[in-house]
Write a structure and sequence with these properties.
By secondary structure, this protein is α/β, with parallel strands linked by helices. It has one domain: Spore Coat Polysaccharide Biosynthesis Protein SpsA, Chain A (Alpha-Beta Complex). It has eight helices and seven strands. Strands 3-2-1-4-6-5-7 form a seven-stranded mixed beta sheet, sandwiched between helices. It starts with 13 loop residues before the first strand and ends in a 19-residue tail after the last helix. About 50% of the residues are buried.
Length: about 240
């Protein structure tokens, strides 16, 4: 297996934020698929299985975030990033980070401001029924709230770093990905969505692996949807309205 290239001589072309909590089994597969010249930022959120040490040994840059929560890990990675374009990807081998290449191209070319992956499950094990049902309900509420014709709140995404920071994201739990989309829509960003294969994850999901975890995520996201619009500290990163 090749070691991921995470520290190019100059600034990284792209930073990929990988929130991580006990993902030692999946890390080699994920890191081997980071495109050449990009940097993997593995945000260790309190792993006890040696994930941080393994990631570092495979060439990734490890960021530690002691505050538990998916959003806390994602935002720590965004804050640590230095590349102009930042991507996000789960660290459980359910999504292939190499699929981000056209997402980055779309952002760099000015065709979109935020690009999202719409998960298409590959087999029955890829997406439990309760998690899929929760996602459908939240996507419906998101469409009503923003007017964006989106179908998924998947974690695979790309955008420019400075405009992302300017959104002033505050959720540090499961609502972080949703809050990013809601505030981007409120700021007039062009948001696009593309199908991506969704594989059976390695291990058990900390968020949607149980009905209780799924309900907690839905509750976090309902709270985000109830927030009033918050003005961004910066204009949309490129001209134009929103589209799907």
């Amino acid at each position: 297996m090749r070691a991921v290239t995470t520290s190019p001589p100059a600034d990284p072309v792209v930073d990929v934020v990988l929130p991580c909590l006990n993902e030692a089994e999946a890390l080699p597969w994920v890191l081997a698929r980071i495109p050449s010249g990009w940097r993997a930022l593995v945000v260790d959120n309190g792993s006890t299985d040696g994930s941080a040490e393994l990631a570092r040994g495979l060439g990734a840059t490890v960021v530690r975030e002691t505050r538990r929560g998916f959003g806390a890990a994602c935002h720590a990675g965004l804050t640590a990033a230095t590349a102009d374009i930042v991507c996000f990807c789960d660290c459980d081998a359910s999504l292939d980070p190499s699929l981000l290449v056209p997402f980055v191209r779309e952002v760099r070319d000015g065709a979109a401001d935020l690009v999202l992956g719409r998960r298409r499950p590959q087999g029955r094990r890829a997406w439990p029924a309760h998690a899929r049902a929760g996602n459908v309900a939240l996507a419906r509420m998101l469409r009503r709230r923003t007017g964006l014709a989106l179908h998924d709140l998947g974690p695979l995404r790309a955008a420019r770093r400075e405009p992302l920071l300017a959104l002033g994201l505050t959720d540090r739990r499961s609502g972080y990905p949703l809050q990013m989309v809601v505030r981007a829509a409120d700021a007039g960003w062009r948001v696009t969505e593309h199908d991506v294969p969704y594989l059976p994850r390695t291990g058990v999901s900390k968020v949607t692996g149980t009905w209780r975890g799924t309900w907690q995520a839905v509750r976090d996201m309902r709270r985000v949807l109830a927030e009033p619009p918050v003005p961004s500290r910066a204009p949309a990163p490129s001209p134009g309205g929103t589209s799907s």
